[in-house]
Amino acid sequence: MANSTSANLKLTVQATGENSGTWGQITNTNLLILEQAIGGYDAFNITNASRALTFTNGALSNGKNEVIKLTGTLESNLNVTIPDSVEKTYIIHDGCDHAGFTLTFKTTSGTGIALCEGHKYVLYSDGTNIEKASEERVWRAITAAETVQTGAQILANTNGGAFTITLPASPSAGDEVSFIDQGYDFNTNALTVGRNGSNIANAASDLVVNTQGAGFSLVYSGDATTGWTYREK
Predict the structure, then answer these.
(1) CB burial string 92-112: b at 16+ within 10 A, e below
(2) Phi/psi of residue 60, each to 5°?
(3) Per-residue pLDDT tens for 31-59?
(4) Four-CA torsion 63, 67, 71, 75, nearest 10 degrees
(5) Domain residues of the chain, as ranges?
(6) Residue 210, CB-side half-sphere exposure with 13 Å CA sphere
(7) What's the CATH code, domain 139-230?
């Protein structure tokens, strides 16, 4: 009987009587792969092309790492993918500058999680899709126009002039974006929240915020007429 390969980490499963003289080497490689899956770290630069993480049979591979940090400035909407049928848990740190673009961690053929700039995630693959177990959100200072992602927590400083923060396109029910007037300047230089095709508080218009010290969150209601609505008011 020949060796086989495990479904998820692609370990070499040795058949009885096989691998005379190389059994120890194969076993050591399997142990290194397990170490990589339990505590391995790698960083990948993502700029202008989607990236497929690898799962090479019987070898260390970048997709087998437990912790992955994504870096770089996006130049288009991109995906980071793992193969279909792999079941695995990941800790993902989105360290990219999105520059208004989206970054999704997904299986090759299934659905995934749209990442938010600066956030950290515990994600897992069920063999078909990527699911989110938890998300660590961070507050991020912005001083100029930008399109943000679901989950963004924005410290908007308009001291240097009014600007627009554009909400994510095609939101899903429960998506949330939060805003704080970092410099207490909204009354002088208003913040505009661009609706990006969805209603805000039952209106097909952008939201202009000119209240000094304002702090609020918008949650997508799932209803196209209501659109984004206030979490606090």
Answers:
(1) bbbbbebeebbbbbbbeebeb
(2) -60, 135
(3) 999 999 999 999 999 999 999 999 999 99
(4) 50
(5) 4-136, 139-230
(6) 7
(7) 2.60.120.640
Enumerate residues 6+ apart whose C-beta is below 8 A from 118.
94, 95, 138, 140
Quick one: DSSP state of residue 58?
Answer: T
Is 102:116 a contact under the CB 8 Å cutoff? no
223 burial via Cβ count (<10 Å: 0-12, 13-18, 19+)? exposed
Q: How many CB atoms lie within 10 A of CB 218?
A: 23
DSSP 124-192: EEESSSEEEEEEE--EEEE-S-EE--TT-EEEE--TT--EEEEPPSS--TT-EEEEEETTS-TTTS-EE
Q: Which of 165, 144, 162 is nearest to 216 (CA)?
A: 165
Three-state secondary-structure class, residue 34: helix
- 65-105 per-position pLDDT tens digit: 999 999 999 999 999 999 999 999 999 999 999 999 999 99
CA angle 152, 137, 111 (to 5 degrees): 75
User: Tens of pLDDT along 116-166?
Assistant: 999 999 999 999 999 999 999 999 999 999 999 999 999 999 999 999 999
What pLDDT, on a 0 to 100 scale, did the predictor assign at position 132? 97
What's the pLDDT tens digit per position in 2-14? 899 999 999 999 9
